[in-house]
Amino acid sequence: MDNFKRTLVTTALPYANGPVHIGHLAGVYVPADIYVRYLRMKGEDVLLIGGSDEHGVPITLKAKNEGVTPQDIVDRYHGIIKKSFQEFGITFDIYSRTTTETHYKTASEFFKTLYDKGEFIEKESDQYYDEEAKQFLADRYITGTCPHCGNEGAYGDQCESCGTSLNATDLINPVSVISGSVPVVRKTKHWYLPLDKHEPFLKKWILEDHKEWKANVYGQCKSWIDQGLQPRAVSRDLDWGVPVPVDGADGKVLYVWFDAPIGYISATKELTPEWEKYWKDKETKLLHFIGKDNIVFHCIVFPSMLKAEGSFNLPENVPANEFLNLEGDKISTSRNWAVWLHEYLEDFKDQQDVLRYVLAANAPETKDNDFTWKDFQARNNNELVAILGNFVNRAIVLTHKYYDGKTPEMGSVVEDFDKQSLEEISVIVNKVQSSLDQYRFREAIKEMMNLARLGNKYLADTEPWKLIKTDEERVKTIMYVSLQITANLSVLMEPFLPFSAVKLQNMINLSDVNWSDLGKTDLLKAGHVINKPELLFAKIEDETIQTQLDKLQATKTANEAAAKTAAPAKENISFDDFTKMDIRIGTILEAEKVAKTKKLLKLLIDTGIDKRTVVSGIAEYYKPEDIIGKQVSILVNLAPRNIKGIESQGMILMGEDANGELVFVQPSKDIKAGSEVR
After folding, report:
1. Residue 149 annotated as binding?
2. Where along the chain is Zn(2+) bound (predicted)?
3. Which of 339-353, 407-421, 423-437, 594-608 has the lowest mean pLDDT?
């Protein structure tokens, strides 16, 4: 056990260019809220800090597309997100945003402190510049072909097809998103955080001192550290964000990855004048709840920032989750493939706890997991209704039927089964507590439901409705035990199913209870008045689920229709430009998968000129053994590129259909290798 006096919990700041969906909830907010509610029930000093991330290029792009200002975009979505969280029962102590005056001041001061201490490297670098728009282009303002997998829609910072991190200058055939023109390279000055300087500290702090971190978190950190850390720019050329607070930085703002985590600090400042107690007192435990896409920022980059500043606590744990998919497909905001929280709250009124339960029970804690509407229905009907709701309802109904709604005293006939059932309450409570302490929320909610299963089985096995006429003393015992299980259940449910817990506590007329009351077998004294029963959960019918499936199918159909629409023609080029491309027919002689990649094949191709190696991102569509001997079109005068340690000398031409499947561009009959494509 640790000796911390208080806990500060932060949650990843959702990006304010769209609403929150179930992937966000499962990965970050449901587990964080469960954990904080648990600590509060134990009487601990804990804060839950959240807010909207309101800077960065995606917001400026959305504003540009809609013809409004970035502030208009963030105001709209911050309001939607904040309201959705409130209605869903996420109990933030403060839900702030990164466009507040406090945040601008805090972020500026943090940068200036590091700047004055000489913690940054200042250097010029090559960056793309749009001569038509007369501005430098941030990474997301540039698209082009990924040098690793051939995806033509890769961004300047990352290819979303193969997941590889990129520099904009790595892109093949880069194009400005703003004007559609081909950008030019110019020099620009930026400030960099030298992560390599902090590598020895990070090796010890993470790899030696925090081996207890979740395997997915520890593993990703180790991979980054083992590859060797590089300096990372903390500023960028943009007009939306926190201005870089030093001379000679006109037109430059803090990079959003540097700016956003400081939002945790600025939000705490807004909340309490004692903010330093939560950020700098060594008796405070700092926890970051995030998704796996934020692991590097919260485990390597932000701790390096805090370490460089020198006065802040470092995170004690970062219990990050993996991704949640939807009906077998990756959740995508751009394709509208998501279950949006604000829409769920409208379609399933007063059923927040059903979604909380399903997301916690199916949380992607160690690997990506899948949400399906059929599973949602099954968990509600077969678990919440048939087990938890059924037990509670029977216990309260029978109490009213036999004892006028008052808790009976323990009968004179008590069997071992009754004692064992009461003793099992504490066993289950301890398992839940142990799981929560280790951030195992799936395990914890399963154990919570085991208390409902215990009660359900107890009533089914004892059958008081059969004994009432022949053994009244035994029935008193049975109903007393059942009500104590019910009372404990109403408390144990609270972190997971807060709305239902309040409803149940009102039914059994129980108040002023907390975690320390769990395990007690006299929470409801003899004579305690039980209120009338209400259904805790309602069965969800097939037609309700079909409505949601139909909505997703409509989205899928619309996406497929959009995909079938040919992309607009690119900007005209001259005949001379075209003749510069030397495209030949080649024959694949050898093919093998590139180690530690999912999409790359290493090909040996006879071009008629020579035999050369080409790395191509086609492994999802072609097996190596199936393509040997195939003829392909290859651009032979493309400058060589190093891909995963292999020098790739050319590019295979591929066609991409409406479903994103890649097919070879090849001659209709065999032709001599080296034949030119004109």
Report:
1. yes
2. 146, 149, 159, 162
3. 594-608
